[in-house]
Design goal:
Structural class: alpha/beta
Helix content: 25-40%
Order of helices and strands: EHEHHEEEEEHEHEEEEHHEE
Number of domains: 1
Number of strands: 14
CATH superfamily: Carbon-nitrogen hydrolase
Number of helices: 7
Radius of gyration: 18 Å
Length: 294
Amino acid sequence: MPRNTLTVAAVQMRVGEDIEENAGKAVAKLKELSARGVDVAAFQEGFLYGYSCRPAFWNRLDPKRLPTAEARVVRACKRYGIAAILGTAHMEETTRYNSLLVIGKDGSVRGRYGKIHLAGEKWCQPSQHLPIYSICGVQCCFIICHDVRYPELVRLPAAAGAKVCFFCSCESTLESEWKLSAYNAMPISRATENGIYVVMANAPAHADDLHAGSSSHGESKVIHPDGNVIEEAGFFTEEDVVCALDLEAATGGVARRAVNDETALREWMKAGLELVDLVPATANGRARRKKVRA
């Protein structure tokens, strides 16, 4: 029987370039949130490496550090029985991606989502993969920061059955005031134009230094499929936005109509669904892929 609720947490926390320290913070937070009954916790973009874009950081980085830190978080998920969406980066052969690691409650790695539309990062490459992963039995999709400006990255997975979109970001700081209206509008639009939940985990601002690395404007939030913000964090606070999602409200009806209504775009939208990689988890935590059909 499909589950009716999913308790999520959007974690808003300050991190720096110390990968091991950041992993320790994630482990402690997972323990805390598990005790509060949270099913899945989402951490901001680049959480493990402090969203550093400094060339010196990446040029000197020991390639073993991020995978080792990820393994600590994976073990914590299994130990505490909580799923996680973790901002990190990973290598595929010689190519690096700014990515999210998707971890199940049993410590199984569901897969990764790589940022598709970069925002000027020179140290990574754009991903070519648009997946849906099953987390706690719920089909979920993902976007990272600048990706939110491209509605099709949520529309297509929502039409394919995703009920929750995890949006992990480290957006511009409060000094970029002209961006704040759009930052508020876009995740709300992605929710209501598709009929799914959006769980946004963003980095907080630093009250004493708006230029600080890995800082943003906060306002992590959970958005209902009708477009209303259920809960929202502050600009400067380190806090967790925790909500129990009524999954029956995530109908995806608007997204499906975009595919199924008899319009001039119908066949084009159906072709787009072929790009979505539906990866449901099996009982033993392994995944099997199947193509999406309209």
